Amino acid sequence: MNIKTYKMLEDYMLTCMGDSAHDKDHICRVLYVALDIASYENGVNYDVLICACLLHDIGRREQFENPQICHAAVGSEKAYEFLVFKGFELEYAEMVKACIKAHRFRTDTQPQSIEDKILFDADKIDVTGTLGIARTIFYKGQVSEPLYSLMPNGQVSDGSIDTLPSFFHEYKYKLEGLYTRFYTNRGAEIAAERQASAKTFYENMLCEVQSSYKVGQGLLLKHMD
């Protein structure tokens, strides 16, 4: 891929981005980690991989406006149409489309090609560790979702049985179990290096808020008529 093509793809990507948790910096991190993973694999089509990394979140705006929409499905179609419009070969556009469509955690579409698997792993690595915690909390704030939910007894839930969205629910539903969901050895290795810091952050935060409620509610009752 030459610099002119890269810049053209990057410029198009930037016109589609409006979510601060999935911004240009996220795209760069995913691309750089993907290239790291790819260096451990054989037969990688780097033109497809780089293009898919750059365009993998171009459907985020549509999903943000309508949560029922899958950004991976929308983004894959937008990428395909853009590439065909720009004169890329149909086979290339199809490969990029498939790669983007399979990158989402919450989907039944499984990665098939090595490029699919690398993009999936690189994107998931960006929600591991403390970086993933920070991005998740950032996004929850953007969509006005709370850090945690309360149980019927008024105490703070750890997120494991929640039905309403929150940061703790997202951690128990997605972030905690990510570390067994990688397709490449290098991806799993990078994620494992970050796992302990995310677990410690969640456990410390849970302890702090649960303690505040448990102690504070007891003290409040002493001052109620």
The overall number of domains is 2
Top CATH class of the largest domain: Mainly Alpha
End-to-end gap:
73 Å
Q: Would you tell me the overall average pLDDT?
A: 93
> How does the helix and strand content classify structurally?
mainly alpha
**What's the count of strands?**
0
Main sheet record: none
Looking at the overall shape, the CATH architecture of the largest domain is Orthogonal Bundle
| Poorly predicted residue ranges | none
Shape field: elongated
Please provide the ordered H/E string of secondary-structure elements. Answer: HHHHHHHHHH
Cα Rg: 20 Å
- How much strand content do the residues show? under 5%
The total count of helices amounts to 10
Q: How would you describe this protein?
A:
The chain is mainly α and 225 residues long. The protein has 2 domains: 1-109, Hypothetical protein af1432 (Orthogonal Bundle), CATH 1.10.3210; 127-225, Methane Monooxygenase Hydroxylase, Chain G, domain 1, CATH 1.20.58. The protein contains 10 helices and no strands. Helix 3 runs parallel beside helix 7. The longest helix is centred in the C-terminal third of the chain and has 38 residues, at 185-222. The relative contact order is 0.11. The model has no long low-confidence stretch (mean pLDDT 93).
